[in-house]
């Protein structure tokens, strides 16, 4: 096949590209420029869209022996990821920009452009697997559970999964680094990227205040009594305990947690930890990574954080919304997060949480 290798400048994408070449594919390496001015995004080895990363990707492509190009995706990234991040927080929700990047950039804009240019698909260094079964090509967890990235890939449609290649899903990260060294790739021991790539300081709250303002508002208890002030309700998230700025302590000294964010009134509601417990969640805009979910209740697993534990649940479709009822209560669930349904290690689909109970 003729495929594009999305090369971030890290060890995983470099090894993925090398494996694609060894598998007999015609491969072209592409690095995505996600900002017109990369210096305004993260610098150093913590991100995945810096000048240093583009240089590392080019050197890896040279070692592998494949053509290399840089694609300018700055406008698409800002519109589909950065602006979505700001608008979700402004609405009192907690988004995951890595999901939006996979959905809007790596497996929508890139795959569409690749196919328009006559390529068959895109290979990436994500830790996930695909399998061919009776219902077609499906998405599955990686063998290395500690590095599994199927959660952030759960926004892919069946068509996008058909055009995606994940060569690393059957290998541990330790072995990937060893393989990179044996291939002579300089990125073999490069640290993994983390945090949000477009937040230069790593201070999400400060970054949001610069763009959305820092309007002072009340922090209230569940009875509506003011017990503190904040500098922007959007800088808080459900379940948060630290940095609340509460001036009135509880009678027994127990901590308070964020229970609700009300952006219209710029109010943060706090209360006891047990008030965070939820037993069901509803998700909007569901995406299926294989056969669609029906209205019939089905036993499975649901995961609500990228590196969180998958919890036993019953899931079904109701009026176009994905519903998951938990076998055991979950604490600190925020709207805006993704709920990802699994059948064993197979990704069933995902939706954005819009309601909890």
Automatic annotation (TrEMBL):
- Tell me the ranges covered by the tRNA-specific 2-thiouridylase MnmA-like central domain, including all copies: 207-271
Could you list this entry's UniProt keywords, alphabetically sorted: ATP-binding, Cytoplasm, Disulfide bond, Nucleotide-binding, RNA-binding, Transferase, tRNA processing, tRNA-binding
Asked if Transferase is a keyword of the record, the answer is yes
CDD domains the record matches: MnmA_TRMU-like
Q: Does the keyword Secreted apply?
A: no
Entry's SUPFAM superfamilies?
Answer: Adenine nucleotide alpha hydrolases-like
Task: Recall the GO molecular function terms of this protein's record.
Answer: ATP binding; sulfurtransferase activity; tRNA binding
What region holds the tRNA-specific 2-thiouridylase MnmA-like C-terminal domain?
280-353
Q: What's a single GO BP term from this record?
A: tRNA wobble position uridine thiolation
Cross-referenced PANTHER family, in alphabetical order? Answer: MITOCHONDRIAL TRNA-SPECIFIC 2-THIOURIDYLASE 1 (PTHR11933:SF5), TRNA 5-METHYLAMINOMETHYL-2-THIOURIDYLATE -METHYLTRANSFERASE (PTHR11933)
Entries under HAMAP family matching the protein = tRNA_thiouridyl_MnmA
User: What's the protein name?
Assistant: Unannotated protein
What is the protein's species of origin?
A: freshwater metagenome
């Amino acid at each position: 096949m003729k495929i594009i290798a999305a090369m971030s400048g890290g060890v995983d994408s470099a090894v993925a590209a090398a494996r694609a070449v060894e598998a007999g594919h015609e491969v072209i390496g592409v690095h995505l420029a996600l900002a017109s001015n990369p210096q305004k995004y993260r610098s150093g080895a913590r991100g995945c869209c810096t000048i240093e990363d583009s240089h590392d990707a080019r050197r890896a492509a040279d070692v592998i022996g494949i053509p290399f190009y840089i694609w300018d995706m700055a406008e698409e990234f800002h519109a589909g990821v950065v602006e979505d991040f700001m608008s979700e927080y402004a609405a009192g929700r907690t988004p995951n920009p890595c999901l939006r990047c996979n959905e809007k950039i790596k497996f929508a804009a890139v795959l569409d452009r690749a196919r328009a240019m006559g390529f068959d698909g895109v290979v990436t260094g994500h830790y996930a697997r695909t399998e061919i079964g009776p219902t077609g090509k499906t998405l599955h967890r990686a063998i290395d559970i500690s590095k599994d990235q199927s959660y952030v890939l759960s926004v892919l449609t069946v068509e996008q999964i058909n055009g995606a290649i994940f060569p690393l899903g059957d290998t541990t990260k330790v072995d990937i680094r060893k393989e990179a060294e044996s291939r002579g790739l300089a990125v073999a021991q490069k640290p993994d990227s983390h945090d949000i790539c477009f937040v230069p300081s790593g201070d999400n709250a400060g970054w949001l205040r610069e763009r959305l303002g820092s309007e002072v508002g009340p922090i209230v208890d569940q009875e509506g009594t003011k017990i503190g002030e904040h500098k922007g309700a959007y800088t808080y998230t459900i379940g948060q305990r630290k940095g609340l700025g509460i001036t009135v302590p509880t009678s027994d000294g127990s901590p308070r947690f964020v229970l609700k964010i009300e952006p219209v009134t710029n109010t943060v509601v706090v209360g006891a930890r047990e008030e965070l417990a939820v037993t069901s969640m509803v998700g909007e805009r569901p995406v299926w990574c294989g056969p669609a979910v029906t209205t019939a209740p089905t036993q499975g697993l649901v995961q609500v954080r990228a590196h969180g534990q998958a919890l036993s649940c019953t899931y079904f479709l109701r009026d176009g919304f994905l519903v998951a009822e938990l076998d055991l209560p979950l604490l600190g669930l925020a709207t805006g997060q993704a709920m990802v349904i699994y059948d064993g290690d197979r990704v069933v689909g995902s939706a954005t949480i819009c309601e909890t109970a």
